[in-house]
Every structure is written in structure tokens, then in C-alpha cells.
């Protein structure tokens, strides 16, 4: 009888927890909508007035910081950064696993002028997408792989020369926790042409932050920055090394 009562109480507690998480997620969605209306209008007006990408990146970071703050307060989603001492004091290529849009937004907060390699479709997303387009970031098109490589090399090399680090997700899209996806071609060619260190990083954001409008769970997201891979390694060997590092560390995390 005692076990039955405990099981019933556990089920009720779980149900209440799910309901609260769902409610908090919907409140957070409303918060992001309201916040985005103001910041999005500012991005559009400010950019058309000044056309200064650096200032647009500042507005984008302002939106991203409020997004992360709202997640902290309303959802109970916190974050911790591990291995910041592994990041050299120079432009680098950040290469990480991709489980949610949380890490994409968070990286624009942690590294204010980072150049994100992103799907062109993402630039159509209200507010954050406008910021990506006008910052500007590097767009890729699923249907034009040849053009993507040329643009990636051209704009990527310009980016590091201008002092902007690059963010790339070699998996090419979101991958579930413990999932696997072959790395997209391009990261090794960018590495060979840019001639800067690559800082691998892993995140476990997918545990708390599902895709789309799924219910977010409270907890702590870890972003772990690994020791940099120096430039000059043979590109194919580098790609294998990077893939092994990311898969091993994300499984451990």
C-alpha cells in the first residue's frame, strides 16, 4: 500500500512538473515575442539609417543577451562555460556540435563580433535573422554547394583578416543528443585557407532545449571549449581529428 501511494505521488509530482514547464515555456515565448518587436524594429531602423554592421551586431547582441536572461529567469535554464582558457587571443574558427538554437544565440553573446556560418533561411527569421543578415554573417544555401564553398572561403578569410572569429557547425544541422551525422565538406577547406586555430566546442543543450516550440526544461547547459587545433595540419587529417574530438567529448558530456 505504501509503495502504491509513493508511486501515485511520484506520478502526480511529475505531471505537475510537466505542466509548470509547459506554462513557463509559453510565458517565455511571449516574452521573446514582445522583446523582439522592439529590438527588431530598432535593428531595421538603425541599419537603414547608418548601415554600420558593427552597430547592428551590437543590437543583435542586446537581443541575444535578453534572450539568455529570459531563459535564466523564466525557464530556469542556466549555462556554464568550461575551458575559456583554451581560446587564443586572436581570431579563431569555433567548430561545435549543434543540438538547439540556444548555442547559436549564446555564441553571439559570448563573442560579440563572431561571424556565424548559417543557413540563408535563418536570415528570414524575424529579428534574430535580420541581425544575422545585416551583421553580416555568412549564408549557405542547401541547393548550391559549389557556391557555398566559394563564399565560405572568400568571406571566411576576409572575416579573420578583419579580426572576426568564425562559428561553424560541421554537422550541417541539429543532431539529437548522442546522435551522429557525417561532417559536411567545407570545414577542412576553411581551416586550410584561413590559417588560424580551430577551437572545438561541445554543448549538451539538447537535453533541456528541444527543437521548435517544444517544452524547455530547467537545468544547466554546459558549453565546453577544447584545446585549439593549430593551423598547418593536413586538411583531411584535421577533419578526422576534429570529428573524433567532438563526438567523443559530446558523448562524455
What would you say this structure looks like, in words?
- The radius of gyration is 20 Å and the shape is globular.
- The model has no long low-confidence stretch (mean pLDDT 86).
- 52% of the residues lie in helices and 13% in strands.
- It starts with a helix and ends with a helix.
- By secondary structure, it is of the alpha/beta class.
What brief labels describe this structure?
253 residues, seven-stranded mixed beta sheet, 7 strands, 13% strand, 52% helix, single chain
Please write out the topology.
Elements: H1 2-50, H2 53-75, E1 77-82, E2 93-96, H3 102-110, E3 115-119, H4 128-134, E4 138-140, H5 145-161, E5 166-168, H6 187-194, E6 198-203, E7 219-225, H7 235-252
Parallel strand pairs: 1-7, 2-5, 2-6, 3-4, 3-5
Antiparallel strand pairs: 6-7
Helix pairs in contact: 1-2, 1-4, 2-3, 2-4, 5-6, 6-7
Task: Tell me briefly what this model is.
With 253 residues, this protein is an alpha/beta fold. It has 7 helices and 7 strands, in the order H-H-E-E-H-E-H-E-H-E-H-E-E-H.
Structural class estimated from helices and strands: alpha/beta
What percent of the residues sit in helical stretches (DSSP H or I)? Answer: 40-55%
| Assembly of the depicted chains | single chain
| Radius of gyration, whole Å | 20 Å
Beta-sheet strand percentage? 5-15%
Global shape: globular
Biggest sheet strand order reads 1-7-6-2-5-3-4
Provide the residue-averaged pLDDT.
86
Query: Count of helices?
Result: 7
The SSE order reads HHEEHEHEHEHEEH
Number of strands: 7
Q: Low-confidence spans: pLDDT under 50, at least 5 residues?
A: none
Largest sheet: number of strands, sense, barrel closure: 7 strands, mixed
Measured distance between first and last alpha carbons: 40 Å
Amino acid at each position: 500500500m505504501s509503495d502504491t501511494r509513493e508511486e501515485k505521488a511520484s506520478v502526480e509530482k511529475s505531471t505537475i512538473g510537466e505542466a509548470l514547464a509547459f506554462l513557463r515555456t509559453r510565458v517565455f515565448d511571449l516574452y521573446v515575442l514582445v522583446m523582439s518587436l522592439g529590438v527588431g524594429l530598432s535593428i531595421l531602423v538603425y541599419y537603414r539609417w547608418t548601415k554600420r554592421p558593427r552597430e547592428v551586431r551590437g543590437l543583435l547582441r542586446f537581443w541575444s543577451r535578453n534572450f539568455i536572461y529570459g531563459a535564466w529567469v523564466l525557464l530556469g535554464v542556466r549555462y556554464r562555460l568550461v575551458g575559456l582558457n583554451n581560446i587564443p587571443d586572436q581570431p579563431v574558427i569555433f567548430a561545435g556540435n549543434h543540438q538547439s538554437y540556444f548555442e547559436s544565440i549564446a555564441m553571439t553573446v559570448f563573442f560579440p563580433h563572431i561571424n556565424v556560418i548559417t543557413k540563408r533561411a535563418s536570415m528570414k527569421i524575424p529579428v534574430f535573422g535580420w541581425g544575422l543578415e545585416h551583421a553580416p554573417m555568412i549564408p549557405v544555401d542547401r541547393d548550391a554547394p559549389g557556391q557555398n564553398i566559394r563564399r565560405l572561403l572568400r568571406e571566411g578569410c576576409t572575416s579573420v583578416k578583419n579580426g572576426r572569429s568564425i562559428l561553424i557547425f560541421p554537422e550541417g544541422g541539429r543532431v539529437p543528443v548522442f546522435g551522429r551525422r557525417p561532417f559536411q565538406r567545407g570545414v577542412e577547406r576553411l581551416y586550410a585557407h584561413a590559417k588560424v586555430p580551430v577551437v572545438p566546442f561541445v554543448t549538451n543543450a539538447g537535453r533541456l532545449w528541444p527543437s521548435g516550440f517544444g517544452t524547455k526544461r530547467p537545468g544547466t547547459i554546459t558549453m565546453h571549449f577544447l584545446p585549439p587545433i593549430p593551423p598547418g595540419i593536413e586538411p583531411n587529417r584535421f577533419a578526422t581529428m576534429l570529428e573524433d574530438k567532438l563526438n567523443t567529448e559530446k558523448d562524455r558530456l
